[in-house]
Amino acid sequence: MDVESVPEVSEAVQPVYTWKQTAEHITAQFEAPSGLTAQQLHFSLTTTTIQLVHDSGKVLLEGSLFGLVDTDQSSFTVDNNKVQVVLRKSMPERWMEVVLNDARGREVFSDEELAAVAERFAGITSDKWVTQQDVNMTNPEQLEECDYLPEDTACWIRLDGESHRTTHKIDISGHQFLFSATLDPHELPAICLRHDVDGILLRPTESNNSAEPAATHVGTFSALGYVMASKRDKKFASCAPNMSFAALCDGDRNVYVYRNDAPIDSVLLNRKTAKVVKTIAKQYVLSLEKVGRIVGFAVSDVSVFVLKPDALLVATL
Whole-model pTM? Predict the structure, then answer.
């Protein structure tokens, strides 16, 4: 009977270099033979790639970098039988490796990162070992509704189309998505989120700089979140490019138009400020004569377009 030999388990591969990072820098370090000089190394760096090669042809670092770097503030040195490469990050993001798909390096955490982690967990950790007897088992049946975390979570993430990396990330949990609308054909579509009872329009930024806001507030529809919450059969929603009104429709017949600044004929005073109110928010309902499935919906500054399987209906406001 043939017996297959079991391959021996190799020892853990020692890293060729170690590296650490801060919010601004990446520092990689190699052990160097005695007598090595900087003149024996050839160093080439762009914003996205690196090459560090010895005269003998031995490659220390070569390939695409994990992130963008500032070439003017990056360098390498040879001192005390060590080669040290210092890269200045273009953006304060965390790197997972120095060179993409290069497993020869091992990250060591800097004192700055260790202190930040310790501070973050200071309130929920202890230096005392917890035994099983110390654990207080909780009966799930004793938990009330307020004790549970919300199941619906949402996050606004912006990805750079060239590097495919995350430039912005915002937690928008608790702010219901209402609709998206193109306000300007040359800019990114705006997104309307519910904030309290209102609908706020946010236009995503086009900058890769993570220090800049992920979005800009461009408009508000007062009480629109409350209005849309009552429309259980809502199928489509949008707003006019000039933000003069918002509109939504159900699946077969009704179109609802909501105006922020509808004029009024009579004199109306604000009881708290005693100021004359010239406009109020109004809601209009358009009922289509022919009941049938609505398959498309669009809004311009003066019209609402409703698409049915056999007709395109236009309502001019």
Answer: 0.48
